[in-house]
Amino acid sequence: MRKGSQSLSPEAEVGLVGELTMLRAIIDEGMALNSAIESWVGPLDGVRDFEIGTGAVEVKATLSTAGFPARIGSLEQLDDSARQPLFLACARLRQVESGRSLPDLVAEMRDVAAGEPEAVRLLNERLIAAGYFDAHADRYIRRFTLADTRVVEVIEGFPRLTPGSVPLGVTKASYEIDLDKAAGPSIPAADALKKLGAI
Length: 199
Description:
Blueprint lengths: L9 H19 L4 H7 L10 E3 L2 E8 L6 E4 L13 E15 L1 H12 L3 H13 L14 E10 L21 E4 L10 H8 L3
Parallel strand pairs: 2-4
Antiparallel strand pairs: 1-2, 3-6, 4-5
């Protein structure tokens, strides 16, 4: 079903806008272009959206104006036993007529990758794996602007469910965290990338 016959759901569209926004931020902070795109493993069924060095970054995007909700899709997503450090990067988007659509963001990323054939190939591979097809570009008419971002390190005390913290017998779960109430200060993306060894 994902082979181009259907466009992304509204929720998936917002998610991809968040991931592309993070990818652009990683590149703008100084991570090598090919390495940055290669680290974007979410579309390739990665447990987390970006795997950088020994750590990872999980990206969430929301249009919510109340609280700062982050939907966690599995017990493994915020489990830092396999990869450390682990960061949760959240983007609060706002729909505005002067904003940028998903096709605008895709075009900008292609401009960034232009002139680097391997970067272009990796980017297009990830976009297709994420369910984005140019043939559907005219369906994505919503325009977004970035209203707020949070980058929080997932450490002891952070509210989460992991395979090691749930009662025996619980094998799957999805849940929502309100980052306005979660422990841990927000840090600049550059600090997270330095800690990951990306820049």
